[in-house]
Amino acid sequence: MIRIERRLAQPRWLTVAVPVGSVVVAFALMTVVLLATHHAPGHTFRRLFDAGFVGRAALNASFVSATPLIFTGLCAAVAFRMQLFNIGGEGQLYVGAITGAAAGIALGERSGWLSVPAMVAAGAAGGAALALVPAVLRAFLSTNEIITSLMLNYVAALVVSYLIFDSQSYWRDTSSPTAKVFPQGKPLPAAANWPAAHVGHLVLPFGLLLGVLIAAIVWVLYTRTRFGFEVQVIGDSPRAARYAGMRTRRKILAVMALSGAIAGIGGASQDGDIRHTLDPRGLTAAGYGYAGIVIAALARYNPFAVCLVAFLLGGLQNAGYTLQGADFPSGLVGVMQGLILFSALGGELLIRYRIRFARGTRAAEARA
Amino acid sequence: MILAFGGVNNSIVVVVLASAVVYGTPLLYAALGELLAERSGVLNLGVEGMMLVGAVMGFWAVQRTGSLTIAIAVAAAAGAAMALIHAFLVVTLRANQIVSGLALTIFAGAAGLSSYLGN
Lengths: 368, 119
What we know:
With about 375 residues, chain A is mostly helical.
């Protein structure tokens, strides 16, 4: 008979072994899927790996894909640690992209180095402002933040497309006749292009470095400060935290604002690093926010692991874009990501619980 | 679209009401499905993925057999199969409901299984 019982202590080696094992299981499942649909598994995996992680161009493109995922992953990880389920990373990223682009356009060409920090700050403020809506509702009216933050994603998506496609807004390019017929965002001034770090042949977007820096800050905040301790206590047991005199409401507001700010910087990074304009179609099609939640879960809410997982999933996504075509099955990358997530979720069980094989107890009892 | 109205009926109200029915129908199915799951205490964020896989499999079935009844049955079975993954992870293995639901949307959604099978 198989029994599942809760582990009292979680051995350290398991937290590494289980994710690795999950990925192996995911590849095994993927092999089955590929064989069932008459594709050669070895060849397909090889091409995916090459297109995602081998060579200069592939790595640089993977860094670009990973950048927004680091931000949205951290956004989710920060909030989920306190059992505060902020699903709104998607919308907070859009709003960050709107405010970030506004700052970049407003400062114009001659602001020098000031544009970049101004865009980061504006993006953070925009994201935090949107995140505070569900936060206030949760803190003072006890509404379910999952639903409110999820619904705000749709609001933010509609707002960002309205600004470009349905209005003569500040963000829309109206300088030429073609731009009036085919709506598009104003190109950001050159000063608003975020610098990239060149390491050898590799190009690291500024947003990527900033994301890793924020991950380090979050790690320090959550493991070395009183704020982080209180967040963990509230996450584990809100009632115990209240009895201990912790200000739960304030923590909800602070953590949601932090979470939204990180996603907002991700949006500003999309403007400054990658798109150089407010691009509603590209942003809403990508689904960075939802991918971020899954990344945070895979990383078990550890900020450094978020960076690593974001890079791996970003590479996979980038490989999917590169290989898209007649000879490569489309949708394969999504299936692959899904299988990795499922097996990681299943593997969680092995970390939290132990499985005991008590041999033949029930059969023996029956015989006796 | 089915908005081909003649003469008297061609008022804005009729058009709005008719398109409300057209656009509301898929929402109705999604909401009914979600309602069942929520009643049992499971949050199901994978509705999107389940619906898309149902759409692909239904299309496949009607192409193969030409029978609408079979197509509806196949689509329902495909959606149920997706739901089974979510149920196994969330109920049996007690995984996080939000994450599992979103994972299902990624797995089965527009960039995943439904487009993989669609080709």
